# Entry
Amino acid sequence: MFRTRTLPLSKAIRALAVELQDLLAKENRDNLAAQVPSLEIVDRCRCGDDFCAAFYTQPQTHGPYGPSHECIELEPIEGMLILEVIDPAIAYAEILYRNEFGLLCSACCCSLESNAKFPT
Ligand SMILES: [Zn+2]
# Structure
């Protein structure tokens, strides 16, 4: 399998990994919660919006999602947190209005900037 440089979420944004795991457990999504410690950030969202700290944990798919695609809206204390799950893996985490994660993410993901696999 083709592999690219990735960042472990639990190292890059540890507070978020903890929160995510907690929220998934509350939704009785134990199988997804179990994935959180091993999630890898493969790229961050390139929309450039200040309030957006979304990132990809699977290489981006081109074309429509399959029937196993699921969108899970979690209920964080602050902001918005939506997961795209392409069965069985968490593929994309949309995190909005969480400035602390946005700043952290744009800092930590700089090292992915040179990854030619992801066009901007
Ligand atoms: Zn974005």
Remarks:
- The longest strand covers residues 89-96.
- Residues 7-59+67-109 form one domain.
- Residues 14-26 form the longest helix (13 residues).
